[in-house]
Design a protein that fits this description.
By secondary structure, the protein is an alpha/beta fold. It is built from eight helices and 14 strands. The chain binds alpha-D-ribofuranose.
Length: 307
């Protein structure tokens, strides 16, 4: 079973010609609601791929609350751990331009009240996986990862949005998933992809580094691999990273090897970009398997350079 402790948001999506710069106003005809929040997006992606997923988070006492709960249920996620908060439900304003690039503002609201005790009785233990992101209070995330490690669960941290971490914070993490920007925030500066992933990996920790259109790579105790990205016509890249994270966690939880999970996560993320909204394009497993051959198998990296 996969447990996701994280954020859930109402996304208000604005389709614009070009993203605004500082001090700039841009107009568009209207906006549309979409289900969002990195935690909930990842939970939904994993459930659509066939994993058993339980989501632990909070929503507010507003009309978004029941709507957001229903969105997760419809994706096949167990929501008995979705609790209430007196604050407003998390809300994101997302501008998407003609090339599919985005700009996101998040009002965290109820996500700020997600608490460690929500793991009580959630079933954490050997054979389960805990997947966290960085849209709830960081001390709660770090304590949850420590608790999961102590309980014998697999621990995955997708450190998005980017943050610097206190020393030792990654010790209980089995798999760290970051993009190049997030890796640079952790390392205090940019490095070549292989060097960055090698520096963030550890004797017991794999680092998976996503590289956008260049695919992804993984370096860790089980080996090192690189996978390309699937060529698709991207309409909206919002939630591509979430689709990758949810898929990677789902396939590992389902018992696939790291290279097998990595290839499927890359396909999942690409397919998720073909529709507007963070979750609308998330594929089911059959669609992922059908496109896998286009990618080819993950290529072993023979000489990963350290820091
Ligand atoms: O990763 C995309 C997500 O980031 C959006 O759904 C938005 O809610 C923010 O959390």
């Amino acid at each position: 079973m996969l447990l996701v402790l994280g954020s859930i948001n109402a996304d208000l999506v604005f389709e614009v010609e070009a993203l605004p710069g500082p001090g700039e106003t841009v107009l568009c005809p209207g906006w549309r609601f979409a289900h969002g929040g990195k935690g909930a997006n990842q939970a939904a992606a994993a459930a659509k791929l066939g994993a058993r997923v339980r989501f632990l988070g909070r929503v507010g006492p507003d009309p978004w609350g029941p709507l957001l709960r229903r969105g997760l249920e419809e994706a096949g996620v167990e929501v008995d751990g979705l609790a209430n908060s007196p604050r407003a439900s998390g809300t994101a304003v997302i501008a998407v331009d003609r090339s599919g690039e985005n700009l996101i503002l998040v009002a965290s609201g109820a996500n700020l009240d997600v608490s460690l005790d929500q793991l009580d009785g959630a079933g954490l233990g050997p054979g389960t996986t805990l997947l966290c992101q960085n849209e709830i209070p960081l001390p709660v995330t770090l304590a949850a990862l420590e608790r999961a490690r102590a309980a014998g669960a697999r621990t995955i941290l997708n450190l998005a949005p980017a943050a610097a971490l206190p020393p030792g914070a990654l010790d209980p993490v089995d798999l760290l998933l970051v993009n190049e920007h997030e890796a640079a925030a952790l390392l205090g500066g940019e490095r070549e992809p292989e060097a960055a992933a090698a520096a963030l990996a550890g004797p017991q920790r794999t680092c998976v580094l996503t590289l956008g259109r260049a695919g992804a790579l993984a370096i860790g105790p089980d080996g090192a691999w690189r996978v390309p990205a699937l060529a698709v016509r991207a309409v909206d890249t919002t939630g591509a990273g979430d689709a990758f994270a949810g898929a990677l966690a789902a396939f590992l939880d389902l018992g696939l090897s790291l290279p097998e999970a990595l290839a499927r996560a890359s396909v999942t993320a690409a397919l998720a970009c073909e529709r507007l909204g963070a979750r609308e394009g998330q594929p089911e497993r059959a669609a992922v398997e059908a496109r896998l051959a286009e990618l080819g198998p993950p290529v072993p990296i023979t000489a990963a350079r350290g820091s």
